[in-house]
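Quick question: what would this complex look like in 3D?
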Amino acid sequence: QQQVKQSPQSLIVQKGGISIINCAYENTAFDYFPWYQQFPGKGPALLIAIRPDVSEKKEGRFTISFNKSAKQFSLHIMDSQPGDSATYFCAPRVVSGSARQLTFGSGTQLTVLP
Amino acid sequence: ETGVTQTPRHLVMGMTNKKSLKCEQHLGHNAMYWYKQSAKKPLELMFVYNFKEQTENNSVPSRFSPECPNSSHLFLHLHTLQPEDSALYLCASSQEEGREKLFFGSGTQLSVL
């Protein structure tokens, strides 16, 4: 079953605009909420992450907002730039006994127009 | 440079061929992973090795056979693949299994004819 739902599938934003990508999850046994960024021809790379004891984390132009009661977290990219054009994945970590494993969303392809 | 190197970058093989994918990490990590990435689908975890021991086999068909001779090297041996196995195969490493940050290689784009 799909534990993580990511939306939208694709997003086109003008340079300088705000990009917002959402991730909804069903399993409450997630303990860590990262976003990965993947450029064409490269593997994913950790962009920013948040723990469930805080509601927001900001690093430069990137912000994660976390809503525990709604089981959602989102990535906000302020002042979006063409260099931000990439595929973004949420990948919350599920805890099951002693095992911990990332659960990837299906990805959002972001295009920032110059 | 991520510190995780995968070879080859591209591979075309027939269904009767045998080939191997190689992954090497220079980060001193103890856990290594194989993921499959298909278009518009979530990354699928295939195998996990922690301190050279396989700890996860995510119901992967036996035509995929992993090998981890040491903590720095990981192989994926392929034989009698199907066209639906065509995908990007990504290797990743982390300090230990379950650690939060994964470091990915650039992947091997596999096409099965």
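Answer marked as accepted. The CA atoms of residues 25 and 82 of chain B lie 28 Å apart.
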